[in-house]
């Protein structure tokens, strides 16, 4: 399978981590979002929403949306599982992941920030916008997870950890003060010590600049 | 179980539809977002992210995030199923749902619009902001679904239809031109003809104004 990915895209980063955790062979095809390659007609035919990640299967089926792609990977390669088998534990891990994936990331997405700039807001203001939503969301995330485990919900990383680590890459990039989030940076350290996370890092990608 | 809900909240609307489709008994507890009731200390203790919906189970367990709550409902009451059992069909339905739930709704959320207003943008500009993201996302959604079925992906409504119907409530409310989306309003009509959708509508809620 082929993963269309951009090194700095945190949604691509989530899928890269899941692929490596599950040991699924794949090829990475870089799409340069900064140069607008996602708006080319060829790419729009692949993904009408014109974003990464996109996973193309051997039979040509295209899958989009990072969490839906990860759901597919769970289906074809259930081990290691990224969500608990039982409810309501499963829904609680998913909810923490969704605080990052729905409450933080979409509001800070490249196209949203580009639109804010078109509406007259400068780089300082848009960086402040991003930090605001990260701060709000990470506060909620930190209140939702366990306090006594190496990872957000246990002894192995799962969907909440994947979303967290990708989001913290952006938090570092945009200068968020992480002092109130010691628990989160502790989990980040535990994750990045694992080979699957390290191989998925933006800096380890073929298109890293 | 108790569902904390606001009549106009489209994420609450999603969960209400799922509860009615599955025939799960529940009590609705209104939370007035317009009056800021989600920011009260009592509510923040229930949901650190200070939003609705929140589902409180009989044993006191609290579940947040609409899609995670629906995943829980799928777990405890699998029929009727809201997602295909098989991959990659399941991931494709989920991806369409996520275009609404991740690409459109979070960027148009009440708190985001309130922040834009605090940054000096008036009602016309914020309504234009909302219509922009709805137009982009619904275009992608329409390109991702089937063209020959009563519902987005088949003969019964599923997660993509649920997210669509809730989003179209907002599209009507904010005056989006739906002329290019005839396929979507056709699906909306088919959904709202079902009792489960009709009972979940904002106008049918105890706190509707």
Keywords summarizing the entry:
homodimer, 209 residues, alpha+beta, Glutaredoxin, Glutathione S-transferase Yfyf (Class Pi), Chain A, domain 2, 4-stranded mixed sheet, 4 strands
Ordered list of secondary-structure elements with their pairings:
2 copies of one chain form a homodimer.
Chain A: E1 2-5, H1 10-22, E2 27-30, H2 41-46, E3 54-56, E4 62-64, H3 66-76, H4 89-104, H5 110-118, H6 123-144, H7 159-173, H8 182-192, H9 195-200
Parallel strand pairs in A: 1-2
Antiparallel strand pairs in A: 1-3, 3-4
Helix pairs in contact in A: 1-3, 1-7, 4-6, 4-7, 7-8
Report on the structure:
Two copies of one chain form a homodimer. Helices cover 52% and strands 7% of the residues of chain A. Chain A has helices spanning 10-22, 41-46, 66-76, 89-104, 110-118, 123-144, 159-173, 182-192, 195-200; strands spanning 2-5, 27-30, 54-56, 62-64. A four-stranded mixed beta sheet of chain A has the order 2-1-3-4, covered by helices on one side. In chain A, helix 1 (10-22) crosses helix 7. The longest helix of chain A has 22 residues, at 123-144. At the A-B interface, helix 3, helix 4 and helix 6 of A face helix 3, helix 4 and helix 6 of B.
